[in-house]
Amino acid sequence: MNRAAAKHLIERYFRQLTEGCGNGACTNEFCASCCDFQPLDNNSAAAKALELFKINAKLCNPHPSKKDSSADDEDGKMSDGDPCPTKEGFSDVHYLTEATICMLLSSCEEEGDYSALVRVIGRVFSNTEILMKSFRKDDPDAAENSFKTTDESDKKENQSERPSESLGAVALPEESPCGTDDPLEVRVDIEAVRRVYDKLLTNEQVEAALVNAIIYLTPNMELDLEYLDVYETNPDYLNIFIIVMENSNLHSPEYLEVALPQFCKAMSKLPVAALARLSKLWSTYELRHIRRMMETFQQLITFTVVSNEYDGENLVNDDETVVAATQCLKVVFYASIQGGDVDVEHNEDEEEDSESDELTLHELLGEERLYKKGPRVDPLERELGVRALDSINPLIPFEDFINESLNEVVEMDKDFTFFKINAESKFSFQTCPFILSVITKSQGLYYDNRIRMYSERRLTALYSMVQGQQPNPYLKLKVRRDHIIDDALVRLEMISMENPSDLKKQLFVEFEGEQGVDEGGVSKEFFQLVLEEIFNPDIGMFTYDDDTKLFWFNSSSLENEAQYTLVGLVLGLAIYNNCILDVHFPMVVYRKLMGKKGTSLDLSDSHPALHQSLKNLLEYSGDVKEDMMLTFQISHTDLFGNPVLCDLKEEGDQIPVTEENRQEFVHLYADYILNTSVERQFKAFKKGFLMVTNESPLKYLFRPEEVEMLICGSRKLDFEALEKTTEYDGGYSKDSQIIKDFWETIHSFGEEQKRLFLQFTTGTDRAPVGGLGKLKMIIAKNGSDTDRLPTSHTCFNALLLPEYSSKEKLRERLLKAITYAKGFGML
After folding, report:
1. Cα 251 to Cα 291: distance, rounded to the nearest angstrom
2. Judging by DSSP bridges, how do beta strands 791-793 and 798-801 pair with one another?
3. Rounded distance, CA 493 to CA 497, Å?
4. Which of left, alpha, beta for 714 (phi over 0: left; psi -120 to 50: alpha)?
5. Cα(716)–Cα(767) distance, integer angstroms
6. Residue 495: phi, psi to the nearest 5?
7. What does the pLDDT look like over 543-597, one tens digit per residue?
8. Is the pLDDT confidence value at 723 over 90?
9. What is the C-alpha separation between 143 and 147, in angstroms, rounded?
10. Cα 87 to the center of its chain, rounded Å
11. Coiled-coil stretches, from where to where (predicted)?
12. Whether 795 is catalytic
């Protein structure tokens, strides 16, 4: 069916819903002449007409009485349905330009009557063909040609069959060639559109006409894009979206009810190539325009969410307005990335997953969809060739794209199912992870991890039944405290070689010679002990910076790769088992884990002194060669403090650093420090990490800073929230005087003292994802007044607090305990 025929059918459905067929005995439930029909307003009728067209609903034939009257009313119908101006001088507007609007405004202001302008705006903005041609850059005689009298229009129609040369210079915009070498180039004069809106939006009558026009326009657009592939035949169809989105009042209540939701639904129907072109265009805008569009879509999402009630049956995923607005927001998200500082190069080499021809047990059971890796690349991301990971500094901070109202109502268990299984039929907000907070995304990751754990447990049971062996549903590690690294390394290495899928099982740790069931506390203690030993400077696997308090890979380490693989495994297992680690890496480590190489920008975090030196070199205004006397050979110290020379280029000691090549020197220096010198160590480290997380949606959902938060926790500490969730044991309660004194003391501490207390009690100075309110801390009574210090069981987040006789003594004992905790008291 062509576009004209489809449009005609929709108009017939609309008239059937508003006027009826004229048959008083009509039984069609979708006809206004039916006695049971509930009257609809024009907006509702337009939306319903589109629905009826899609399902090919029954269409009444006009009753004879209706046919007789229709001929008499044809002229009136045309004047009611088509807002074409009849005022002399503006009888037929073919497209709009800034000059046309100025002339119309001037004429209307002189007469004090804006009805002609309202009709013209209504007609143009409700017609895709006309709006598509409006506000073109390439229209030489815009003011003269954009509107003509009826006689001139008739004359033009008579000439339309003649050769195009006879039209002379009077060419309509659509006659310009559609193709363009530059995908960013659109032939809309955007600055002119903005000036026009500035003039029009001061008039309430005109704005009302704009609202109504968009409501009338969007059902046709949705039809065009969904059924007629109109963008493929005419890429200039994108002009409509460009023009409408320049309306700075789209976020106002007049649009939020109907017009903007319908517009977003139409925009979400654009093909990926069109959305990419739109995103590239918007990335060239000034920040204030991109932010306005972001806030427009965010406001629509928030308005819709707070105006409705959602639950397990009525999901926000089924709300077409929220879904469409989120998909539109994605276009702005990528525009913000492209418009900022981006590094699409410097990517780590990705190891291809080996595909096996053998059927897995999951496939044999028909469950392969649940355990597939999930979407690795967003279609729009692939089209644009840029990822959130490539962003160094976006125009709009990532945090501004998170919608808190949406995060409060999304059901992550259901959303996860849509994400993994029903992606084709159901929308998942995890396909737009930028709108979700790290807390919400961590819930999705939790479901993914738990389902994999239960899956491995189930498969183990099936295998054991077939093979007649004792089932082993957990990843069991039995270690000796005094040989914890050796035992863990041997056991995990055997598992990773023999059956890597066992790493997906729930971790269960047992210390040899000790009784106890691992309900999370023993695993946490295991992680703490392993990390404490591995990061011991005496072992030499990592170097420690006293200024930044961060660790970095020791390029001169004598340890083999297996030790670094163990560290990566521990980090992966911590994420997989929802455990916070006391790890202090610079952000570049997490960027490298996600697939980016380190660059000179990362040195500010990992090697601040070197970063400052290189920055001074780049900014030096004197004679670099003579004053600095640097070459492309650098030196660093090995494990024993001996200098090691390294050429950044072949025969680097013979190549001086000059003003012309100093940028290259900085790039090569940073690449050596962050990538080349630690390649062996980091490759093993990443291998261990991916053993656990390679099938997880971690890389798809989280940015590097969010991965750090998953592993290490949040730096933001809210002790008020911790106080509300803390439990008491041994005779204490929240009303005990000692407890009241305790919290007054804690709240009076400085930031550093609070971190020391958290480290003393939980084993890490950070809060879990979601804040300290998610931490289950216990304060237990440990005897009456005494000079003994408070102690803690970090594996259970338990503080053992004696009932001191005074608040002053409590403060003094507590400060001493948290300040000198290393070596005693922390079990």
Report:
1. 12
2. antiparallel
3. 6
4. beta
5. 7
6. -65, -45
7. 998 888 899 999 888 888 888 998 899 888 888 888 888 889 999 999 999 999 9
8. yes
9. 8
10. 51
11. none
12. yes
Other CB atoms within a 10 A radius of the CB of residue 149 amount to 13
- Relative to beta strand 778-781, strand 643-647 is unpaired
Nearest to 262 by CA among 38, 4, 46, 39: 46
Tokens encoding 466: 């077939």
**Beta-strand runs (E) in 605-692:** 633-637, 643-647
Helix (H), strand (E) at residue 393:
strand 391-393
Contact 298, 257 (CB under 8 A): no
For 737-792, what is each residue's pLDDT tens digit?
A: 999 999 999 999 999 999 999 989 988 888 888 888 888 899 999 988 888 999 98
CA dihedral 329, 334, 336, 338 (to 10 degrees): -160
List Cβ neighbours of 310 (8 Å cut-off, separation of 6 or more): 316, 319, 409, 411
Q: Residue 278 half-sphere exposure, CB side, CA atoms within 13 Å?
A: 31
CATH 3.30.2410.10 region(s) of the chain?
715-820
Please give the class, per CATH, of domain 715-820.
alpha beta
pTM, two decimals, is: 0.80
Q: Which of 702, 483, 414, 756 is nearest to 575 (CA)?
A: 702
707 class by beta-carbon count within 10 Å (0-12 exposed, 13-18 middle, 19+ buried):
buried
Contact 648, 668 (CB under 8 A): yes
Give CA–CA dist 40/30, Å, rounded. 11
| Residue of 26, 60, 108, 795 marked active site | 795
User: Using an 8 Å Cβ cutoff, are 350 and 396 in contact?
Assistant: no
Extract the tokens encoding 271. Answer: 């093909």
Contact 509, 477 (CB under 8 A): yes
